[in-house]
Automatic annotation (TrEMBL):
Gene: hemA
Binding residue positions for NADP(+): 184-189
Span of the signal peptide: none
Provenance organism: Halobaculum saliterrae
Name recorded for this polypeptide: Glutamyl-tRNA reductase
NCBIfam families per record: hemA
Domain comment, as recorded: Possesses an unusual extended V-shaped dimeric structure with each monomer consisting of three distinct domains arranged along a curved 'spinal' alpha-helix. The N-terminal catalytic domain specifically recognizes the glutamate moiety of the substrate. The second domain is the NADPH-binding domain, and the third C-terminal domain is responsible for dimerization.
Length: 443
């Protein structure tokens, strides 16, 4: 077994799928999914992440076809356009884009970085990640995500109407230890709930016509949260300091009677048409709508768009480095296996040759060195051309040649993992004979 592999991935996300389709793709929890994937023959690593916005899984295997088959088997029963499959290079780039926030509903949002890290730790706990190429890809993605936020303005200021609503609320009332109510659990309600989750509010209630969807949004929040049906909306407004409404209903949901006993409350209406009756509740209730958010969103949108272009350039550079590292590892594994195989043959033949020569009289140390040197020279010259070919194959993405070389020269390839003390270098490849690595570095 080697410490590199080919990655394949599958995704059902907000980019192509509805909330219901994403939910249908999450039939089991991430840990169970990873455990199932890693138990499949030929799969070396597995990782899965499930949030309100996405359900994604990745595997790494020595054989690209094995990896691809594993993720194809995960495709949920949703329409074809809702599912996206990634090959190795697409997986590497997509994971970096996800970590940087470029694939999020809110461009550059911070929550996804922690979610990726938590999902990676969960995968490690069940044996899904073991320091191989998928583990490396996730580590690189996390580094890119941190760099994107540290070196650009990708996460500064509000961008969506949901996050703009929360920013407007912070300008008008003190959100520290406040109670918030989100009316609607669709895309806009989800964004508002997540923006509130990053604010100082102490409790978030999500109300929706279908309580199950509200529960799904509430479960994704770190702040204390609860879910309820719209039938209980009046009671919820009594305890809310800020209400953000985003249902998309044809008629207003928050009316005079809804906030009759609410007291001092800020209502922010994101609905089109209106979700909140203008001037609902009288003087104690302040109502704001989308027009009030324009000054909050315009500047932030321009700033984040410029930052996104910088992050794209950052990902391009990191992707090229990661891909070159992957190719180098694959070539080095194949070359090491080839030299290890040649070394075993050389040592066997040397022992037999020395025994035959010494049958006619004991050899001097100088004679032994001449014979051993001849054997080393033959191995080096015979393997020089294949070494060059293997590295060229890796550079040209000719993984079939690499795979064939591993099968020919590595007796443990596609077999059980090497035991402690077996002939392996620290990075997982086989040790080349003395002097070989020096010669290779000169070629």
């Amino acid at each position: 077994m080697i410490d590199t592999g080919v990655i394949a991935g599958v995704s059902v996300s907000h980019a192509n799928a509805s909330v219901e389709e994403i939910e249908s793709a999450q039939t089991v929890d991430s840990e169970t999914l990873v455990s199932d994937l890693i138990s499949r023959e030929g799969i070396e690593e597995a990782f899965a992440i499930q949030t309100c916005n996405r359900a994604e899984a990745y595997v790494a295997a020595d054989d690209a076809a094995v990896a691809r088959t594993a993720v194809e088997a995960l495709s949920p029963d949703v329409r074809e356009g809702a599912i996206v499959q990634f090959d190795h290079e697409e997986s590497l780039r997509h994971l970096m884009r996800v970590a940087a926030g470029l694939e999020s509903l809110v461009l550059g949002e911070d929550q996804i970085l922690g979610q990726l890290q938590d999902a990676a730790e969960a995968a490690r706990e069940v044996g899904g990640l073991s320091g191989g190429v998928l583990d490396d890809a996730l580590s690189k993605a996390h580094q890119v995500g941190k760099r994107a936020r540290a070196e650009t303005a990708i996460n500064e200021g509000s961008l969506s109407l949901g996050s703009a609503a929360v920013e407007l609320a912070t300008r008008e009332i003190d959100l520290a230890d406040a109670s918030a109510l989100v009316v609607g659990a669709g895309e806009m309600g989800l964004l508002a709930a997540r923006a509130l989750d990053a604010s100082p509010v102490s409790r978030i209630v999500v109300a929706n016509r279908t309580q199950r969807t509200a529960e799904h949004v509430a479960a994704d929040l770190d702040t204390e949260s609860a879910a309820l049906r719209l039938d209980d909306l009046s009671a919820a407004t009594e305890r809310a300091d800020v209400v953000i409404a985003a249902t998309g209903a044809a008629d207003p949901i928050v009316r005079d009677e809804t906030v009759a006993d609410a007291g001092e409350t800020l209502c922010i209406d994101l609905g089109q048409p209106h979700d909140v009756v203008p001037d609902a509740g009288g003087a104690d209730v302040a109502v704001r709508d989308i027009d009030d958010l324009e000054t909050v969103t315009d500047e932030a949108r321009e700033r984040r768009s410029a930052a996104a272009r910088a992050v794209e350039d950052m990902i391009d550079a990191e992707f090229d480095r990661l891909l070159e590292e992957f190719k180098r590892k694959r070539a080095d594994d194949a070359v090491s296996a080839m030299y290890e195989s040649a070394e075993r043959t050389k040592q066997r033949e040397l022992r037999e040759a020395m025994a035959k020569l010494e049958a006619n009289g004991e050899l001097t140390d100088e004679q032994r060195e001449v014979v051993a040197g001849l054997a080393d020279a033959l191995v080096g010259q015979l393997l020089a051309a294949p070494t060059k070919s293997l590295r060229e194959a890796a550079a040209e993405d000719d993984w079939a040649t690499i795979h064939t070389a591993m099968q020919l020269f590595d007796p443990e390839f596609d077999g059980p993992p090497p035991t402690p003390g077996s002939a392996r270098s620290p990075d997982g490849g086989a040790d080349a004979p003395d002097g070989v690595l020096e010669r290779l570095s000169e070629e």
